[in-house]
Amino acid sequence: MDTIDQLLEDRDAILDDLRVNLIRAQQKMAVQANKHRRDVEFKEGDKVFLKLRPYRQQSLAARKFEKLAPKFYGPFKISQKIGKVAYKLELPPTAIIHPVFHVSQLQTAHGTPTIHAELPPQLNAELEFIMQPLLLRGVRPKKGKEPGREVLIQWKGFTEGEATWEDFDKVKTQFPEFNLEGKVHVWEAGIDRPNDTFVYSKRRNRHESKCIKEIVDTISQRFQPITSSRDDNLIGVEARMQHFMSNLQIEFGGKRMIGIWGVGGGGKTTLASSVYDEISSKFDGCCFLKNIWEESSNQNGLERLQEQILCTVLKQKQLNVGRVEEGRRMIKDMLHHRKVLIVLDDVDNLEHLEQLAGSRDWFGEGSRILITTRDEHILTGHKVDVIHNMSLLDDDEAMKLFCKHAPCGHKPIEDYELLSKDVVAYAGGLPLALRILGRFLGDKEMNEWRSALDRLKEIPDANILEKLKISFDGLKTVEKQLFLDIACFFRGHDYKDEKIMMILDACGYHPVIGIKVLVQNTLITITEHGRSDMHDLAQEMAHYIVRGEHPKNPEKHSRVWKEDVLQICAMDATMLMVKLA
User: Tell me: the pLDDT tens digits for 18-48?
Assistant: First the structure.
């Protein structure tokens, strides 16, 4: 206790020092800032312009294209001074924003007041711009690391010099009749299309035969019949595919790596497989590597996986990779000009990922690399473009999937409705659990269903447990112990609670980094209220591990809780009575 008291005193002293230093820093910043300020004061009756950009009030009409919006509004008359630095303006009766503004948003209207911003050639009834795109003037990738493209648009009523760079998706959505996607394809193929007339663009200095090939490929792709290989029997996959396809951004080109992160048995491989089947025809070569964590553990496993990538993408019967380093070089040399689609399924090691798809530069323009994993750290460490968090099934989807695998046949549906809901609640939206339990219970009677559910609460299904336990087995010993303690004692508690963190820290768990690792491995989650939580099946897995080989002997468990404590106390009382007798 003395040590803890000393630590708390040291912490308070450090916080006091930080407060003092923060106040000093704020005072110095204020002194420097005030050197560049001047006193501005208005009188009642003065007319001023109101500056609302870049701090435009949300109650004003939103502009579709803020670059063309006026910077100042007004002039308006000052009706009252509020305090030392605020003024109340006489706004039009139709205005719905608060009429009091800081002095920094006001500018004196000298002479005959006129609105600074010139009115556009067309306005609607709400005095908003009526913007219509006229011509596409250019295409470029977005600046920085942000994915996507921007387009240079010349607007009707404005000169070419007033063209603005706009987000591709926004223009495409707001002006579908402009056919932006088609114009971009034509532009990138080396052809301009002003006034819907094809004209060869010599200024791009593109080879004519290459331009013609690109145009033919684009047109052929548009007019070919659209077929889909989606399995309509997959429950909940369609909606998740639509969201995931937006992350792929296939139409934007570039090279992208997309991660699919989620709990074991949560449908990551199913989603990746469905996407692969849907889009594989759009690539020069494709490869789907399954169970990488398992295959890489075999002798020369990484070399065989590298061979599989090369042979599948290049459509070769056999290619030999002697060493991992040689495989890295071969993949980069042979695929860096090819548009490829590669799925790396169930990756559990960052180093393995770097040996199979070390960089975007290994692959050609338009390539897409999909990575599924239970460990978010692998995706962040590899700096993928997007991490897609795999959501579990909702109650309706879970019920559909369970009923699909547990058909009742001639049995009355109402007799099984409540039991089905119990099974779905037990599975917690985990597709793997729903499939396994559905197949197991499909031919059972009602009393057998009840017995099976009671047994599952004590002894989880081995196939479900095996899938979930992969993430647990990949942890370090200290992280395993931390997970078991949270599952047994601290689920639902505030993970920032100093007492709890002190207890876990005293156990040598280093909980700050340990909890981060558990979250990344999808073993626990942190709610929006800062409380630790986990899937019910993950907690049951922890209880099963703690009970070990002695499920009926709590005195031999590494941890005891609730009814186990009562049972041990009862056993001690019984033994004491025997001794007294």
Answer: 888 888 888 888 777 777 666 788 888 888 8
Side chain identity, residue 63:
R
Q: What is the pLDDT of residues 478-492, one digit of tens each?
A: 988 888 888 888 888
At residue 359, φ and ψ (nearest 5 deg) are: -155, 155
H or E element at residue 87: strand 86-90
pLDDT in tens, 88-102: 998 877 666 778 888
What pLDDT is recorded for position 221? Answer: 47
399: domain range?
A: 395-453
Domain final residue pick, 101, 128, 155 = 128
Most confident of 300-314, 465-479, 520-534: 300-314
Regarding whether 361 and 267 lie in a shared domain, the answer is yes
Q: Kindly give, in sequence order, each residue whose CB lies less than 8 Å from that of residue 511, ignoring residues fewer than 6 positions away.
A: 482, 495, 501, 504, 505
**E-strand stretches of 386-459:** 386-389
The alpha carbon dihedral of 90, 91, 96, 97 has a sign of negative
Look at residue 160 and tell me if it is in a domain. yes
Sheet with 72-82: list strands edge to edge: 100-102, 86-90, 72-82, 47-51, 106-108
Contact between 175 and 196 under an 8 Å Cβ cutoff? The reply is no
How many whole angstroms separate alpha carbon 283 and alpha carbon 305?
Answer: 20
Mean per-residue pLDDT for 534-539? 81
Indicate whether 559 belongs to any domain.
Answer: no
Question: Do 364 and 246 share a structural domain?
Answer: yes
The token duo for 561 is 């809780």
CA distance 467 to 433: 10
Rg (CA), the chain: 32
Helix 446-458, helix 431-441: angle, nearest 10 = 140
Q: Is residue 566 part of a domain?
A: no
Residue tagged 């009575």 (tokens): 577
The number of distinct structural domains making up the chain is 6
Verify that 245 and 351 share a domain, yes or no.
yes
Structure tokens at 147: 């994915």
Q: Is residue 565 included in any domain, yes or no?
A: no
CA-closest candidate to residue 139, choices 151, 126, 153: 151
pTM score, whole prediction = 0.53
